[in-house]
Design goal:
Elements: H1 17-25, H2 29-41, H3 47-56
Helix pairs in contact: 1-2
């Protein structure tokens, strides 16, 4: 079965990007969120990719 990357409907704080990415990678969503926050604090380099993913990634069916 092929995995697909979707925004999560159940594990979301803002748009569901971190929850969906965590499901796809098979890790805890908290780890993904902490990594995103670290990238955002390091010059804001995580904010643009997050917003792009929020706009482009489809919702979980």
């Amino acid at each position: 079965m092929k995995k697909k990357l979707y925004k999560s409907r159940t594990d979301k704080k803002l748009f569901g990007v971190c929850g969906g990415l965590a499901e796809y990678l098979g890790i805890d969503a908290t780890v993904v969120r902490v990594i995103l926050v670290l990238f955002c604090l390091a010059g804001g380099s995580g904010l643009i990719p997050y917003l792009v993913c929020a706009a482009v990634m489809p919702e979980e069916p």
